[in-house]
Amino acid sequence: MNNSEMNIDGKAIQFPIFTGSENKKAMDISKLRAETGYVTLDYGLKNTAVTKSSITFLNGEEGILRYRGYPIEQLAEKATFLEVAYLLIYGELPTQTELDTFISGVTNHTLIHENMKKFFEGYPQHAHPMGVLASMTCALSSFYPESLDPSLNEKSVDQTILRLIAKTATIAAWSFKNSVGHPVMYPQNRLDFSANLLYMMFAKPTEEYVINDKVVSALNKLLILHADHEQNCSTFTTRVVGSSQASLYAAVSAGIMALWGPLHGGANQAVVEMLQKIYDDGGASKANIDKWILRFKDKDSGQRLMGFGHRVYKNFDPRATIIKKAADEVMEDLNVDDPLLDIAKQLEYAALNEDYFIERKLYPNVDYYSGLLYRAMGIPVDMFTVMFALGRLPGWIANWKEMVEEGQPITRPRQIYIGEKKRDFVPLEQR
Ligand code: ACO
């Protein structure tokens, strides 16, 4: 470990340099405050590594994403979602026996407590399914109170992990059923994870549901592509909440809420809504696209080109490239002709050739095409971010587990106070 030297108030201070396995370097400032009285100020934590991690490697300049060392392109092509979930959570690709045990563990927990079914009746029909998913995920902890014990042993952690993966899928599908006023469909344990999710969302008791393998395969790919993305807003939130030793259910529920925002996972919904607006405003004509590009460049318009730009990627988001191809294939296979896809492609072409986006290194991110793919699969807009959450679940769990196993301290940053100096209380009648 090398040192870096900083001169603070005339005093030379040494900080160790830590180098990760892919040669990324960090200055370890853990002793900064103790030795100098200074803290760092870093809005949005743009320059701060909050942890060491061996789960996901991301190189935003070169557009590289790997889970536990395996390139995302290979995993999306060759693996199943539960195989990737196991990889992220336990660190290695499972053997056949390990995978079979993991799958049967998840499958055995797909039912949710019958009392939870009644909760759905309490939500208004138009409740956003992300709110329902977050609150119901937290509510799971009340059915498994042993999960509240911060000194959980490995066996009960594994049990909670299986329950979370299995039951959030059922909750997600049922929140959709609730929103359309249809009866819930119980999980079918003969189906694999993705097929079962589609079944619970789209099957009806009145007719036979035919599983479309191409849609199942596209969903499997989407879930894998979303499964982890190192220290993003929702994963960090999960770590922050977990660091207080709140239960895994509570930590994941907080992660779901963080994901909901349009600057994070909510962007997939925002993209489709934006494309629809552009379509209604004049379609894919060059004049209309140019008008909207001008709007996205104008800070006063308050409108961003949703699905473009990323805190870490300053190059193509590799997930966007895979999803764009999958969207083309699924639309062709299912004979879907979506005019919004045409708008998305024209808009992407225009933005990638526009100085504003080039100078700021703004490229399509994972959400730019994922919403269109969900749409082609028949998934309603409100459910896009829910699908993202189901995909991201293994990443949240893996990060929570890594943090707990490393015994990291509670996350509690500092601030620089800029408010009033001490002043005396003024009685109400004198104000
Ligand atoms: N459209 C127009 N301008 C943009 C966009 C965009 N989508 N994204 C960034 N910019 C501009 C900013 O206005 C800023 O310009 P300036 O330097 O002239 O002030 C510059 O590019 C840098 O933007 P920041 O917001 O500082 O970048 P940051 O890294 O903080 O934000 C973010 C990244 C939030 C993803 C941003 O690019 C954005 O809002 N994109 C649209 C929303 C979106 O697609 N979110 C999904 C991200 S992927 C995910 O979370 C799964």
How would you portray this structure in words?
- With 431 residues, the protein is mainly alpha-helical.
- It has helices at 32-36, 72-78, 81-90, 96-107, 114-122, 129-143, 154-180, 193-202, 213-225, 233-243, 248-260, 267-280, 286-297, 318-333, 339-352, 355-359, 366-376, 384-406; strands at 2-8, 11-19, 25-27, 56-59, 64-67, 70-71.
- The strands form two sheets. Strands 1-2-3 form a three-stranded antiparallel beta sheet. The protein has a three-stranded antiparallel beta sheet with strand order 4-5-6.
- Helix 9 (213-225) runs antiparallel to helix 14 (318-333) and helix 11 packs across helix 18 (384-406).
Secondary structure layout:
Layout: E1 2-8, E2 11-19, E3 25-27, H1 32-36, E4 56-59, E5 64-67, E6 70-71, H2 72-78, H3 81-90, H4 96-107, H5 114-122, H6 129-143, H7 154-180, H8 193-202, H9 213-225, H10 233-243, H11 248-260, H12 267-280, H13 286-297, H14 318-333, H15 339-352, H16 355-359, H17 366-376, H18 384-406
Antiparallel strand pairs: 1-2, 2-3, 4-5, 5-6
The structure holds acetyl coenzyme *A.
The site of acetyl coenzyme *A (ACO) has 20 residues, from helix 17.
